[in-house]
Amino acid sequence: MTETTSDSANFKARYLLRGIMTRCEPFVKFDNVSKSYGNFTVLTDISLELGRGDVFGYIGPNGAGKTTTIKSLVGLITDFSGRLTINGMDMPDQKDRIHRLMGYLPQKVSFQEWRTVEHTLATMGRLSGVDVAEIESRIEHVLGVVGMSDSRHRKVKELSGGNVQKVGLAQAMLHSPQLLVLDEPLSGLDPASRYQVKEIIKELNKGETTVFFSSHILSDVQDVATKIGILGWGRILALGNLHELEEEFGTPRVLNIEFSEDNSDPDVIAAMEGVTDVTTTVPTGLRVRISDERDMDEVSDRIVRTLLNQGCRIRKFTPSTPSLDELYMRYVNRGGQA
Amino acid sequence: MSLKILFLDELRGFYRSKVMLVLWLGLPVLGAILFLWGPDTGDEIPFTVLSALLLSSIGGTLASVMLAVSIINEKEKRVYDLFLIRPIRRGDILISKFLAVYLCIAIAGMLALALGVSIDYYRMGGTPEAVSEHLLESVVLTLSMMAMASAAGVLIGVISPTVLVGAVIVIYGGNQISVLPVLPELLGYESNLALSVIISGVTTAVLMGLSVFIFNRKQF
After folding, report:
1. Which of A78, A104, A127 sits opposite B88 (nearest CB)?
2. How far is CA A286 from CA A249, A252, A258, A279, A303, in A?
3. Are residues A264 and A200 located together in one domain of the fold?
4. Do A111 and B9 touch (CB under 8 A)?
5. Which range of residues forms the domain containing residue A100?
6. Chain A residue with minimum CA distance to B92
7. Number of structural domains, chain A?
8. Could you tell me the CATH number of the domain that includes residue A86?
9. CB contacts, 8 Å: A96 with chain B
10. Same domain flag for A206 and A282
11. Residue A331 maps to a domain
């Protein structure tokens, strides 16, 4: 009797521990993943971890290996080296189980053209394990989310590229996946649709869906990603949230100054101590880089005094952190030189 | 389960396609035209046999071209990506296509043969002896050759990099395979229907097995 009670307690403890471990384990984990085509190495020792609910923006120049990383993640490429796990399960060994958790939008989404939107989604949903009884309501829901309810009975071949992309996103969300992998989801979309898709990603994130997406449009990544990875030449150049990337790089702060009356002499400002670079901006303004953010207050004060002495009238004086574009270029340039 | 979903889906796509329309309506009509206006065949070959010959050659070629082109096109356009990231067996994609096309052409074959039998019955005032003698053999051989041609189409679709290469291989190579069931007869042995069926069944299974094996190992 005592032994049975003890066994039961052990079982419960193990069960609880397993639950805690599962929650603590990274949801997606790349551990030294490499991939080569013959002698050409596309990915070298990619290691990164994502927790549940992370929105990971994956950026890098053309040919850096973003799509290869994504194809390895979704199991389209299986002959990589290293270890890749999703929710503790190994890809590709347990890919059938992993695929139940996953939705995927490829870079160039393509459907069999004779299908209608509804037929496409019904097939994809059924193959993902959505119950027949639920499929109708799920289709209605995802088409509503991507704003394509009116196109339900249209043939795929009649849709514009942007709308095909939206149907692609709809099929990826159809079975409420825990991990959504999107390869360039915003390319080819008009500004309104891009905004809409970004809102969808933010909304999914509230529901703890983990999103892994690649993009060339860095401002979009900046808008939605909670974690950013910069890839260059098959290697991860930087990893973290925007603030961490700034800190890692030691990037100087930037002052944006706009004049209502411009009598400034940029050379004088550029020669000031603590200033690394000055550029003029259109229509009348300056963009001043400060070498060390700790000197920001003191340098700002000196700049304002100097400009006023030069007879300038200042309309706006805004300190700003560098954009992701700037950080990206610095990381990529540094990676290229390495 | 995934095979059933994919099969019904492919069937829905193929049975309404233009190529299938040609197979279902065009071939029997073409057979009837050849039979009624052909210079020498009218009195010697029953229409049923002519239909069987037509279907096994033209129908088999069309089926294999259709399968090969469909698979190559879908590979090129990356249609399979969305199927392969779902919890299904990769081979089911190919098997469902094979079964859907094969079922369609088998129905087309039966339609053409039924038309042949009807015409022969009408012309000769009753089922002619030649028809009843050769009907079973015609049906079995037609279905066997079509199965092999379809399986060859699947394999060519899986291994060919472009539609052009695929079409050339199907036309110059794939169709030759349908001679296998009648090979013993061509080599001078006595006609043996059971042997022909075994040869075509094994060939079809080997071709499909090879296709699935290659498709499973393919990196997308």
Report:
1. A127
2. 23, 16, 7, 6, 11
3. no
4. no
5. 22-247
6. A127
7. 2
8. 3.40.50.300
9. 87
10. no
11. no
Q: Which one, of A288, A160, A76, A185, lies nearest residue B90 by Cα?
A: A76
Tokens of A103: 């939705």
Answer yes or no: do A172 and A284 share one domain.
Answer: no
A119 lies in some domain: yes
Q: Which of A100, A124, A126 to mutate to test the interface with B (most CBs of B within 10 A)?
A: A126
Identify whether the C-beta of residue A145 lies closer than 8 Å to the C-beta of residue A200: yes
Asked if the C-beta of B16 comes within 8 angstroms of chain A's C-beta atoms, the answer is yes
With tokens 């496409």, the residue in question is A120
Residue A96: alpha-carbon gap to chain centroid: 25
Interface contact flag, A114 B78, Cβ < 8 Å? no
**Contacts of the segment A203-207: beta carbons below 8 A, 24+ positions apart:** A204/A173, A204/A180, A205/A53, A205/A55
CA distance A239 to chain B (A): 27
**CATH number for the domain including A263?**
3.30.70.100
Exposed/middle/buried for residue B14 (C-beta within 10 Å: 0-12, 13-18, 19+): buried
Q: Is residue A335 part of a domain?
A: no
Beta carbons within 8 Å of B126's beta carbon, 6+ residues apart:
none
CA of B15, closest CA in chain A: separation in Å?
12
Tens digit of pLDDT at every position of chain A (338 positions): 444 455 555 555 554 554 444 456 799 999 999 999 988 999 999 999 999 999 999 998 888 899 999 999 999 999 999 999 999 999 999 999 999 999 999 998 999 888 899 999 999 999 999 999 999 999 999 999 999 999 999 999 999 988 999 999 999 999 999 999 999 998 878 888 888 899 999 888 887 899 999 987 788 888 899 999 999 889 998 898 887 887 766 666 788 999 999 999 999 999 999 898 899 988 889 999 888 777 888 899 999 999 999 999 999 998 877 677 777 877 777 765 55
CB contact under 8 A, B86 and A99: yes
Nearest to B78 among A75, A108, A119 (CB): A108
| Per-domain residue ranges of chain B | 2-217
Residues A183 and A200 in one domain: yes
Together in a domain, A274 and A308: yes
Query: Could you tell me if B4 lies within 8 Å of chain A, comparing CB atoms?
Result: no
Task: Check whether residue A121 and residue A268 sit in a common domain.
Answer: no
